[in-house]
Amino acid sequence: MPRHYVIANWKMNLPPEGIDAYLHVVGSGEPAGTSFIVAPPFPYLRDVARGAGTVLDVAGQNCADHQSGPFTGEVSAQMLLDAGARYVILGHSERRSLYGETDALIARKLAVAHAAGLVPVLCIGEDLRTREMGQVARFLADQVRAASAADFEKASEVIIAYEPIWAIGTGRNASGLMVAETVAQIREALRRFWPPRFESETSILYGGSVTPENVRDLVAHGHIDGFLVGGASLDSGKFLAIYGSLSSP
Ligand code: PEP
Fold this sequence. Notes:
This protein is α/β, with parallel strands linked by helices. It is built from 11 helices and 8 strands. An 8-stranded parallel sheet has the order 7-6-5-4-3-2-1-8. The longest helix is centred in the C-terminal third of the chain and has 18 residues, at 176-193. It is globular and about 45 Å long. The model has no long low-confidence stretch (mean pLDDT 94).
């Protein structure tokens, strides 16, 4: 059975209420089978890991595709682990579109994350044109297949975040039924391209303008195992409300 996750992607932001106050509120949630994960900017990983206690886990927002060496400005998977992270977000659409990350680069990052023992959160998702042209299944299958270039033997787990690009930070979210159809397409791609155990064991999260207001339809109809949340995750109350909808739909 896939595990349930709710992940806060702070991007290059901090919660206005401050890290300690935020963690205090979010840490008061009852996990009941769902893992809470916070992904802060790199310099705050240790602060979040220290304040996270036993209720929360920590993720990096990215890592290098090398283990160490002359790569100015990069952070390795092992360094994330040393700072207290257990997860790493890879292939976020902002990394793909703003920093030119390709499927091949992301597969190399997956490989170093697997080798270091970090659980990768692999982001995939189509742009609006691809959806309008009816090519979502093929597009996502290509992203899933490209990731299989990483050696999955060392991977204990991989989480997939389905994030349609047209829904990220736009206030326009996918409907539950649309997400359910897409999740089925992703599972079919996992069956075709990844080792057998991943088809049924992989958690598939939805991300894209999730708020406490629109979360119920996604939980009720989306066939998802949780959420990757950007904007709304900066507010501890909203993040907690999103989590609450997942545990009691
Ligand atoms: C994201 O950046 O992963 C994301 C889903 O952002 P938002 O919730 O703001 O759309």
